[in-house]
Design goal:
Length: 379
């Protein structure tokens, strides 16, 4: 097996999901390459050492430029907050490294465009970690839609609901809370949560033509962890938007961090002429399917337990009936990335694919400001 030497930047929640995936992928998938955890990079040396010990990285760096300069690194994995993705990715592309970048790709569309130009100019393999595409039930939804099982699609409905920022005492900024700081995150729920919904939606149902959005920031000021001062909150706490897809279907998208009782309730439902599909992250191994062609007496919603060997990814795991979970989606992402290296057919979403999501997010935020329908620019 060839070695794929990984240098990870960032040690937070996403650094853990990615590291776990790199470590496990060859145990479950037969691949041409084996990721080798060469180095973890973090500004704090203590934290980097601690992370390296826990996850088995061979070395640590405290400067990402030094990591990128290393000859023994093939792939740079970016798991840092959003405002550093572009600088790191562009430098890594110039150095000829492959890149896997945490979502969202960038702070906004124009920045994402520069990242796409950099990886395409350098011809380096690249991918963005929109992991929910690789939940087997979601991949099965994609297969069913592509096979025409839903027929013409009329409606797409998606939600991503959380409740972790309701307290006004919660500060903004710093480790763990940078998602509340617009300078670091770019936006609030739009870039953090709706970006997932948009990525899945565009993958399943094609491009979005235009959007009409509203946003709200419920808590207007929060103490900033880094300055200690009470500062204006500039992210969107909640966002809801209407969309028209190019295929003529109508959509509603909603996300908030103020839906008391919901932790990560990502759901979608798709209604077509011949059938419907529904999925729920809290029950991620199930896909609900309604097929109008079924005999009338037994027609109804099927609750498919996606654990069988002929369902996406599942032959690589346990035995039929035994389900997998969240972390496996990241393992699938690495497996597909590596298969893309071997086949020369890059796995999606590439930076270019993810740029489309960025453009939709920009149009959503613009529409919330203008209170008008906004066209999504072509990528
Ligand atoms: C936010 O709480 C968050 O961690 C997102 O940043 C992730 O992308 C999402 O998958 C789960 O929720």
């Amino acid at each position: 097996m060839k070695k794929l030497n990984v240098g990870l930047i960032g040690y937070g929640f996403m650094g853990r999901t990615h590291s776990n995936a790199f470590r496990k992928v060859n145990n479950f998938f037969d691949l041409e390459y084996k990721p080798v955890l060469r180095a973890i990079c973090a500004r704090s040396e203590d934290k980097a050492i601690d992370f390296a010990d826990k996850w088995g990285y061979e070395s640590v760096e405290t400067d990402w430029r030094a990591l990128i300069a290393r000859k023994d690194i093939d792939l740079i994995d970016i798991a840092t907050p959003n405002n550093s993705h572009a600088e790191i990715a562009i430098a890594a592309a110039k150095a000829g490294k492959m890149i896997m970048c945490e979502k969202p790709l960038s702070m906004d569309g124009p920045e994402g465009k520069k990242m796409v130009a950099a990886v395409e100019k350098a011809k380096v393999p690249n991918m963005v970690w929109y992991n929910y595409r690789r939940v087997p039930a979601v991949t099965l939804a994609k297969q069913l839609i592509d096979e025409g099982k839903l027929g013409k699609i009329f409606h797409y409905r998606a939600k991503f609901l959380q409740d972790w920022t309701i307290s006004p005492e919660l500060p903004q900024g710093g480790a763990g809370l940078w998602r509340l700081d617009a300078k670091v995150a770019g936006s609030g729920v739009t870039g953090d949560l709706l970006a997932h919904c948009i990525d899945t939606a565009v993958w399943l149902n094609g491009s979005i033509d235009k959007v009409n959005a509203m946003t709200e920031t419920f808590i207007k000021e929060r103490k900033h962890t880094e300055t200690g001062k009470v500062q204006k909150v500039q992210i969107d706490d909640a966002c809801a938007f209407l969309a028209r897809f190019n295929n003529g279907s109508l959509a509603t998208f909603e996300s908030t961090r103020y839906a008391r009782g919901h932790k990560a309730l990502y759901t979608f439902e798709i209604n077509g002429e011949k059938g419907s599909l529904a999925w729920d992250l809290h029950d991620l191994h199930r896909l609900q399917y309604f097929n109008y062609a079924d005999e009338g007496r037994v027609r109804g919603w099927r609750n498919i337990h996606v654990t069988d060997g002929d369902q996406p990814y599942m032959k690589n795991w346990w035995v039929p009936g035994l389900q997998i979970g969240y972390e496996h989606t990241f393992v699938h992402q690495v497996a597909d990335f590596i298969q893309g290296l071997s086949s020369g057919k890059p796995a999606s979403p590439t930076f270019r694919d993810a740029l489309e999501t960025q453009y939709v997010c920009d149009a959503v935020l613009k529409s919330a400001r203008t209170q008008k329908w906004e066209k999504v620019p072509k990528k």
